[in-house]
C-alpha cells in the first residue's frame, strides 16, 4: 500500500507541476470560438457570386482565393443574391496605414440602383466597419484626444437605415462600439464572424463577440464589400443561410 500511495502522490505532484507550468505560460491565450465557415450548409462565395456596382474593372481582382481591392474609386461590389437570415465569415487584411473599408449587410436593391445611376458612392444598410488601427491613431494625433465617435475595432452601425445598437454605444447614439479591442494592425489577417437573424446583427472579431444591434430595418438585402480609398485584401468569404 505504501508503494501504491507513493506512486499516486508522485503522479499528483507531477500533475500539479504541469498545470502550474501551463497556467504561468505567457504564450497561452484564452480559448476563442472561431467559426471557420466549414460544415453543413456553408457555402464559399467567389467571384461569380458578386457584381461590380460602381467600381472600375480593375478595382477588384480574385487571385488564388484572395480578393484584392485597390481602394479606388470609392464604391462597392454586391452579392448577386439577396439574404435575410444568415451567418457570414470573412478575413481581411489592410495593406496601408489608416486603411478604411467595410462589409455591408441587408443593402436594398433600390440603394444599389441609386449607386449604379451615379447617385452617391456607398450603399444603405448596416455596415460592419473594417478599419486599420492607424485610422484611429491619426485622428487622435490630429485632434489631440481619443476619438469619441468611432473605433477601429469593429463598429457596427446603420447607414441611411435603422438599428438599435448594443452597448457600449457611441455618444451620438448610432454606433455599437466594440466591448473589446481585438483587431490586428496593418499586414495582419483579421477574422470576422457576422450573424444576422431576424433584424439582429452580431459581430465576433478574432473569435470574440464585441458589437452589434437589433431592430434593423431593412432586415433583408444584399451583401457588399467596400472600396474606400485604400488597398485591402479579403479571403475565406463564406456564408450559411438560416431559416
Plain-language structure description:
This protein has 243 residues and is of the alpha+beta class. The protein has one domain: Jelly Rolls. The protein has helices at 2-23, 109-116, 133-143, and strands at 43-44, 50-52, 60-63, 66-69, 75-83, 86-94, 100-107, 125-131, 156-159, 162-165, 190-197, 200-205, 208-217, 221-227, 232-241. Strands 1, 3, 4, 6, 10, 11, 12, 13 and 15 form a nine-stranded antiparallel β-sheet that branches. Strands 2-5-14-7-8-9 form a six-stranded antiparallel β-sheet. A hairpin with a 2-residue loop joins strand 3 (60-63) and strand 4 (66-69).
CATH superfamily: Exo-inulinase, domain 1
Distance from N terminus to C terminus (CA atoms, Å) equals: 62 Å
How many helix segments? 3
Structural class: alpha+beta
Largest sheet: 9 strands, antiparallel
What's the pLDDT, averaged over the residues? 89
- Residue share in helix: 10-25%
Binned strand content:
35-45%
Q: What value does the Rg take, in angstroms?
A: 22 Å
Can you tell me the CATH class? Mainly Beta
- In the CATH scheme, what's the topology name? Jelly Rolls
What string, H for helix and E for strand, traces the elements in order?
HEEEEEEEHEHEEEEEEE
Amino acid at each position: 500500500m505504501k508503494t501504491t500511495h507513493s506512486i499516486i502522490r508522485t503522479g499528483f505532484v507531477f500533475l500539479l507541476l504541469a498545470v502550474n507550468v501551463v497556467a504561468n505560460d505567457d504564450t497561452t491565450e484564452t480559448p476563442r470560438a472561431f467559426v471557420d465557415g466549414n460544415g453543413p450548409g456553408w457555402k464559399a462565395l467567389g467571384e461569380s457570386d458578386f457584381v461590380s456596382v460602381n467600381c472600375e474593372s480593375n478595382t477588384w481582382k480574385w487571385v488564388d482565393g484572395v480578393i484584392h481591392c485597390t481602394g479606388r474609386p470609392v464604391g462597392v461590389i454586391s452579392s448577386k443574391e439577396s439574404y435575410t437570415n444568415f451567418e457570414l465569415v470573412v478575413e481581411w487584411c489592410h495593406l496601408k496605414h489608416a486603411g478604411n473599408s467595410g462589409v455591408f449587410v441587408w443593402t436594398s436593391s433600390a440603394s444599389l440602383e441609386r449607386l449604379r445611376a451615379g447617385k452617391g458612392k456607398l450603399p444603405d444598410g448596416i455596415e460592419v466597419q473594417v478599419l486599420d488601427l492607424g485610422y484611429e491613431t491619426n485622428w487622435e494625433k490630429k485632434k489631440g484626444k481619443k476619438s469619441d465617435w468611432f473605433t477601429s475595432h469593429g463598429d457596427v452601425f446603420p447607414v441611411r437605415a435603422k438599428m438599435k445598437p448594443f452597448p457600449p454605444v457611441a455618444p451620438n447614439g448610432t454606433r455599437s462600439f466594440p466591448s473589446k479591442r481585438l483587431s490586428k494592425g496593418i499586414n495582419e489577417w483579421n477574422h470576422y464572424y457576422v450573424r444576422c437573424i431576424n433584424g439582429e446583427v452580431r459581430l465576433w472579431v478574432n473569435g470574440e463577440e464585441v458589437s452589434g444591434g437589433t431592430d434593423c430595418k431593412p432586415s433583408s438585402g444584399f451583401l457588399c464589400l467596400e472600396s474606400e480609398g485604400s488597398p485591402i485584401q479579403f479571403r475565406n468569404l463564406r456564408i450559411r443561410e438560416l431559416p
